[in-house]
Amino acid sequence: MHKTKTTIYFALISLALFGGVGMASAAPAVTEVSGTLTNGSAITVTGTGFGANGPNLVVFDDFESGTNGNNIKIGAGSATIGEWTSVTLINNTPPKYSNAHSLSGNLAFRGDATANSGDNNGSGTTAFKYGFTTSDIFVSYWYYFPTTSDWPCLNGTNCNNKIVWVTGSGTSDDDRTIPTNLPNGKSATNNNFYPACNDCVGGEPPFSPTLTMAKGKWYRFWVYLHGVGNTTDHEELWVASPSSEANIAAATRINRTTQIWNTDFNGFNRVMINGFNRWCNDCAESAPTFDDVYIATGPGAQARVEIGDAATYATSKNLSIATVTSWGDTSVTATVWQGSFANFNDAYLYVFDANGNVNTNGYLLSSLPPPDTTPPSAPTGLVVN
Asked: Is residue 18 part of a domain?
């Protein structure tokens, strides 16, 4: 999938504030982008209003460094950027690299809800990232459930699927699922999504508008959490999907500022990918699948660079997040990842600041012709003595 390599230099497009996202302040404005537009290459974005705070990138993983059928790696070098701290070993069935379905490249993360943990009739083939403490976290990931799989349900009807779980010191401390989904049965329509918790006071609001998830389609979820333990707590959750039939433009499903965590909030300490599944005890297959997982923390957690397939962020259905290597108010350097884009010709670039403000009208990525590599002709008419 990562095939096109084009040197880029782009023209300016008009920019405006992304309505309904972030707090009051001027939106970022892009004046120039340069670099090489191919998977894993660097670009530099120049402009104004990017803000002083960029993201603290904790993990980015497209799972291409693994081997099909092997366990998800942990420790140094286990992710594309950063590392996974540990994986759950349930009946010797940890999450694995798989080429059965992938969004980018050839491999993805594949869980297994048919493995019984013996704990509350659960299954949790999970990858963990911990070792940090933060009040602000941004997580983006792509999620896929195969048509050949059953939703994770015990005895066919007792269903529970905590897709990604952000917690404090444990699952009963300063936690939030992003999100939980509870289908009515292992083969039922799946449209019951909400951000659940064990240690919060702000309730569990349903998605608005409702999401109906189909098997065999890729969905992108991205979430921002700000925790304090008072009425300034904030959570936002978006969903998009370029898959046919799903066909969802970037839509906010949760966006609220209210007290969500208890007053003894101490910070988020870990992220669990494939956080929890109900044991699918009578299923031949139940395989939640993830790709292009991105985790950032700190005051600039939601500051980022993304590339979309439409001229406005709100109408983009296919999105790829870049990994920032340096951030300043007028210049950002980042590595681009193609995700499910065949190439970035005529795609659009977006810059978010730390408050979530973004240029609604995207910066068009129109490539120049490749440089002329033909050697110059030998001079003529010269007299040699």
From this structure: yes
Domain assignment present for residue 228? The answer is yes
For 10, the domain range is: 6-54+303-365
- Residue linked to tokens 């070792």: 131
The residue ranges of DSSP E strands in 38-118, in sequence order, are 42-48, 56-61, 81-82, 86-87, 96-98, 108-110
Q: How many CB atoms lie within 10 A of CB 14?
A: 10
Give the tens place of pLDDT for each residue, 172-186.
999 999 999 999 999
What's the CA dihedral at 219, 366, 345, 320 to 10 degrees?
A: -30
Per-residue DSSP letters for 309-370? SSSBGGG-SSEEE-EEEEE-SSEEEEE---TT-S--TTEEEEEE-TT--BBSB-EEE-PPPP
Q: What CA–CA distance (Å, rounded) separates 156 from 158?
A: 6
pTM: 0.89
CB distance 255 to 168 below 8 Å:
no
Q: Are 65 and 82 found together in one domain?
A: yes
Closest CA to 222 of 122, 316, 92, 121: 316
pLDDT for 202: 84
pLDDT the model gives residue 377: 53
d(CA 161, CA 152): 6
End-to-end Cα separation, the chain, in angstroms = 57
Here the tokens at position 281 are 């005890």
**Going by C-beta distance under 8 Å and a sequence separation of 6 or more, which residues neighbour residue 254?**
195, 205, 207, 208, 235, 236, 237
Backbone angle region of 159, left / alpha / beta, with phi > 0 → left and psi within -120 to 50 → alpha: beta
User: Mean pLDDT across the stretch 71-77?
Assistant: 97
Mean pLDDT over 72-101 rounds to 93
Closest CA to 55 of 359, 369, 326, 251: 326
Distance CA 68, CA 106 (A): 9
Say how many domains are in the chain: 2
Identify whether 168 is part of a domain: yes
